[in-house]
Amino acid sequence: MGKGRRMKKQGPPAPLDESKITILKKRKAAEAAETEAAPKVVAAKKRRRSDADEDVVTKKDAPKKSKVNGAASKLTGKENKKAVTAKKQPVPMSDSEDEEMDDEFGDLDDVSEGSLDSQDGLERLSDLEDDEDDSVLDSDEEDHPREAMFSDDEDLSDAEERLTAANIEGLSRKLDLQRQAEEEEAEQELQESAMQTNIAGDRPDVFADETRPDGLAPDLQLLRQRITDTIRILGDLKTLGQPDKSRVDYVDLLLNDICTYYGYTRYLAEKLFNLFTPMEAFAFFEANETPRPVVIRTNTLRTNRRSLAQALINRGVVLEPVGKWSKVGLQVFESPVPLGATPEYLAGHYILQAASSFLPVMALAPQPGERVLDMAAAPGGKTTYMSALMRNTGCVIANDASKPRAKGLIGNIHRLGCKNTIVTNMDARTAFPKAMGGFDRVLLDAPCTGTGVISKDAGVKTSKDESDFLRIPHMQRQLLLAAIDSVDHASKTGGYVVYSTCSVTVEENEAVVQYILRKRPNVKIVDTGLGDFGSPGFVSYMGKKFDAKMALTRRYFPHRENVDGFYVCKLKKTGPTPIAKPTDDTTSSADRHPRRASSKASSADEEVIDKTPILDEDGAAMDFEGGAFGPFEDGDEDAERIARAERNRLRRKGINPKGVLNKPKKNKEEASKTEAKAESTQEEKKEKKEDAKPEAAKKSSKGEKKTVTKAEKSEKADKKEKKEKKAKKASK
Ligand SMILES: C[S@@+](CC[C@H](N)C(=O)[O-])C[C@H]1O[C@@H](n2cnc3c(N)ncnc32)[C@H](O)[C@@H]1O
């Protein structure tokens, strides 16, 4: 990040506010009216965005056009961007989180009152001051080179004053430039809204295609104008729509324009569009065109936020605390030095981490001394945060299926000084809880399609197709089942799983959680503890209903919170996952003895349904089958997927799916009984066989057997070669 790249304030933006732009428009209109009467807009004035003379779109046209298109202009992305930068709103934190944070960091008593508290525009600095009250402290002095930055006798209040003074200049410069940028944007907005649209009376005719004046490439500015016009029409179809056109026609036109303008495939554009109202969808697509703020997370194993801020300010970095919701995040507005190469970075005092990435870890809230699993950990932003929250105690198993990515993970763990972490490189779907289980908490930051981070990876716009939205949610379901089965429901301190993705689609979020609730009624959704920041998860979507508690899960959007799109769900395991018979003692202790249980669980893991009633807060048994929400997977798309998965599952077990699936329900029930019986007989046989083996033979693994066979083979080959040589010699 250089001086030229200034970022907008992190955190929840003010709601879309037209007043600012309207004032500017009015001012402009008044100016123009004074100089000359507004002439009619002529089609010849349509210009491409890329035209060199674009920025000289005649200001005299503005008053008239801004009047015509006033409503449409309120939808433009520029304004949305402004809304994003609008006034800072403090994000309320839940009491529990405050407590957690207090516990986590303790209090810093010897910090003086800040000297800057009333200056307008420097409110952010007081955040930094507030921060001192509960500043990051670490008991491990060895890992705390704060002394390196401040001499022992240095007064903290002096240090703070210097910190503040150094930051004032940068911040005020930043604010000036921000204001200037906003005014420029407003100006551009004005010019944009002055563009010609095809108006037929009060009903704009957006279907007359004038977006390709040369008949070839589309004029982007006209296209954008048509997008905003279509959205305006969709907002009041009765009054503004053409009599012979339906809502479907307008939505179809809008989607095509969005695809052309922003470069999405029709499939993905439609999927994302369906999450919002047309107006909000436009804001979302717009937000995906601009980068999110640069945020760094203080590594509290090595320093605290104030010391880090001071060190970076000394290097000319302009920054401020990320918001009330985090005590370790710093938003960087401007940096004359590369943030990934400062001495502080190399010494592991911070990690570059998107603000939304803090949230799943905050929701998981790992405690010192616990055993925690990070199932898909690379490159380690969340692992290292967990390690810091646990103050390098207990144990974090950081797993990732990708070897090259696991190397990056190891690098970060070393750089940030995490000493309670073990890295594993396994496919978490099959490895857990087989290899290890009984964790106090598990984080599953699942691999996803990345629809929440399109501003970082525009490739998502065209690379994700239908097959990805079948394959990836399937994998997410498998991973989440494994995560749940790896948690110890009887953990004294935990028993929690946090599921997160950087995707905004329902298939990867609520639908996955809904599936899990059906398969594992021994878990329930609990509050993330992240307060009001973000929006609640969907409780229904396109006619399908989800668990009412889905509202406790949180969604974050680039256009609403100015963070990467993210989803966070916290689950509490309320009981064990029985493997075969729910009443069986051995199997019901699977959670505490995952190794023992895993052999029995095998591939049946996905199929086990614990029918033990789960009680809600009022002690009433919850109806998971048909009450508050319908079976999401029985919908069109999911039905096929489930049928396919079911056929494959039966085939794996050696059962002909045709014989079972095409039969009436009664037969199916019988078949599943036979299946269960066959399964348990097989398991029993296996166990008996295992028991009958002598101890030494039991130890010998399959791999060892293979090696012996290979050795035997090579011995035979040697003998054969010798024989052949002898035979050759003899013949000579
Ligand atoms: C969203 S990224 C994780 C980011 C990480 N939690 C962080 O904060 O830095 C998803 C990760 O899942 C890993 N992954 C994909 N499939 C996996 C599997 N079956 N088991 C374990 N990890 C997997 C990918 O290699 C990728 O690193």
Automatic annotation (TrEMBL):
UniProt binding sites for S-adenosyl-L-methionine: A376, A377, A378, P379, G380, G381, K382, D400, D427, D445
Keywords, alphabetical: Methyltransferase, Nucleus, Ribosome biogenesis, RNA-binding, S-adenosyl-L-methionine, Transferase
Region (Disordered): 1-158, 177-214, 577-732
Basic residues bias (residue ranges): 722-732
UniProt-annotated location(s): Nucleus, Nucleolus
Gene Ontology CC annotations of this record: nucleolus
Matching Pfam families: Methyltr_RsmB-F
The UniProt record lists the keyword Transferase: yes
Keyword Ubl conjugation tagged: no
Compositionally biased spans, kind Basic and acidic residues: 202-213, 667-721
Gene Ontology molecular functions: RNA binding; rRNA (cytosine-C5-)-methyltransferase activity
Biased composition (Acidic residues): 95-112, 128-142
Domain of life: Eukaryota
GO biological process, one term: maturation of LSU-rRNA
Residue ranges of every copy of the SAM-dependent MTase RsmB/NOP-type domain listed in the record: 284-574
Catalytic residue list: C502 (nucleophile)
Similarity field: Belongs to the class I-like SAM-binding methyltransferase superfamily. RsmB/NOP family.
Protein name in the entry: Nucleolar protein 2
Organism: Penicillium cataractarum
